[in-house]
Amino acid sequence: MPTFRSERWFQWCNGFFILAVSILMLMPLVHLLAVSLSAGEFVSRNQVYFWPKGWNISVYEYLGGQSRLWRSLGVSVYITLMGTMITLLISTTLSYALSRKYMPLRSLILKLIVVTFIFSLPLIPFFLVVRDLGLLNSLWSLMIPTATGAYYIFIMAAFFRGLSSELFEAGRIDGCNEYRLFWQIAVPMSIPVIATIALFHAVYQWNSYFYAIIFIRDHSLYPMQMLVREMVILDQMMNNLTGYDTSTKAMATDQLKAGVVLFVTFPILLVYPFIQKYFVKGAMLGSLKE
């Protein structure tokens, strides 16, 4: 009986702690939402906290009419989806090959990958390589350089090594070659780790703006994070948004910043509910062994 009560107390305390942390993490978003929906006079006097004052949706009406925001949103969605698919294709195939003990030069390739994990490429040689490949000022420069990484490869290779060898032996007996073993056995059984890597890389790709600073010169190719950087950090909002005139001067800058931040954050939040169950399984990688 005492053990049962202690377990219940632990569950209650654990649940309360997780709830408190979740509320603390949501508070900044709630504050931004309240600011974006409040009247300018209340925002300018710092009287808005977690509930809007003087309800006002003019910020979202104004942002909805900005073609550059929607174009940047399309760029971000494209490089996130395409970049994630490229990353998964390269990472899964390379990791599967490295997980097979009979692969030639397997040990050497693993050592070279470890070197890339420890030492990062210097910026100037990196820029020169991208330029010489003809990727400068193109969306490929935002996807190809981050197409794979040692962290992804180590996780996926460890997962592939943990798959039952009897399944692959049975597949070979049935006449499967290495390609069919990969696509029909390894990949379907690796959905949790693939979804986890996809989520990690999609969030990274969506939030990344450093490569856009280095490689992109055409403003029409700017992703959302690059535009937000100019608006929020560099404070060039009024120069970057088209159609700005004196009628919008009454709109507080803080309101616009809050609205833009929410505009950027909301799409990536929609991804989590669809792959949450796979992400939870992927978080348990390594806890179960064959």
- Helix and strand run: HHHHHHHHHHHHHHHH
The class by helix and strand makeup works out as mainly alpha
How many domain units?
Answer: 2
Radius of gyration: 24 Å
User: What is the number of helices?
Assistant: 16
Give the beta-strand count.
0
CATH topology of the largest domain: MetI-like fold
Q: What is the residue-mean pLDDT, rounded to a whole number?
A: 78
Helix content: over 70%
End-to-end C-alpha gap: 35 Å
Main sheet overview:
none
**Which CATH top level class of the largest domain fits?**
Mainly Alpha
Task: List the uncertain runs.
Answer: 242-251, 286-290
Please state the second-level CATH architecture of the largest domain.
Orthogonal Bundle
- Which percent range describes the beta-strand content? under 5%
Shape: globular
**CATH homology-level superfamily of the largest domain:** MetI-like
What would you say this structure looks like, in words?
This protein has 290 residues and is an all-alpha fold. It folds into two domains: 1-56, no CATH class; 63-283, MetI-like (MetI-like fold, Orthogonal Bundle). 71% of the residues lie in helices and 0% in strands. It has 16 helices and no strands. Helix 1 packs across helix 15 and helix 11 (191-207) crosses helix 16 (272-283). The chain starts with a helix and ends in a 7-residue tail after the last helix. Mean pLDDT is 78; it is low at 242-251 and 286-290.
Outline of the structure:
The protein is mostly helical. It is 71% helix and 0% strand. The longest helix has 35 residues.
Which terms summarize this structure?
MetI-like fold, 2 domains, mainly alpha, disordered C terminus, 290 residues, single chain, 16 helices
